[in-house]
Amino acid sequence: MFTDKASDVMKKDALEKHYRQITSLYDMAEELANTVESDFVSNPEAQLALVEPLLTQVADSADVLSEEFINLFENPSRKKSAKGRIESALRKIFMALEEYRNGLGMRSKKMLAALANIADPIVDKIRKQAEKIIIIFMQLTEISLDRIMHKYEIEEFKRANEKAVNMILQLGH
Questions:
Q1: Tens digits of residue pLDDT in 29-74
Q2: 12 FRET partner, CA 20 to 30 A, in 1, 53, 59, 66?
Q3: Considering the entire predicted model, what is its pTM?
Q4: SS3 per residue for the chain
Q5: Lowest-confidence segment of 5-9, 16-20, 146-150 by average pLDDT
Q6: Domain-by-domain residue ranges, the chain?
Q7: What number of other Cβ atoms are within 10 A of residue 96's Cβ?
Q8: What's the angle, vertex CA 115, arms to CA 110 and CA 120, rounded to 5?
């Protein structure tokens, strides 16, 4: 009986940890929004134009991902219907990350230096967190990386997360 309770506590702790990893996207979106008002930004309007699509998409996707995470544990039979929403939310994050990078490329060199140094570390944290969230959902349901990322991103993801991906594949997800 004691081991059952300990096992339940460990499962609950793991679930809470995964949920916090998903909802940490909200904090990162807030960090990104704060760059607009930074003293290091000479043109707040240009900074807002650069980061707003990404921060909006990150927050919207965090809503969907946190909701689907909860739904999967309340009703595991929803795996198939949740798959599309999860893949779509993650895909939108990666598309917004790409749009951010493309937006940087269109800025002048002078403006780029002012903007990139402030938002880039946060954008990188968002990308890494999205990858952690992919691993969480790979353990819960069969999601397709090719529906979420470009081929070069998949290869980079697999290299960076080789151990976790191999373990999940061995478990049959």
A1: 999 999 999 988 888 998 999 999 999 999 999 999 999 999 998 8
A2: 59
A3: 0.85
A4: CHHHHHHHHHHHHHHHHHHHHHHHHHHHHHHHHHHHHCCCCCCHHHHHHHHHHHHHHHHHHHHHHHHHHHHHHHCHHHHHHHHHHHHHHHHHHHHHHHHHHHHHHHCCHHHHHHHHHHHHHHHHHHHHHHHHHHHHHHHHCCCCHHHCCCHHHHHHHHHHCHHHHHHHHHHCC
A5: 5-9
A6: 9-171
A7: 22
A8: 130
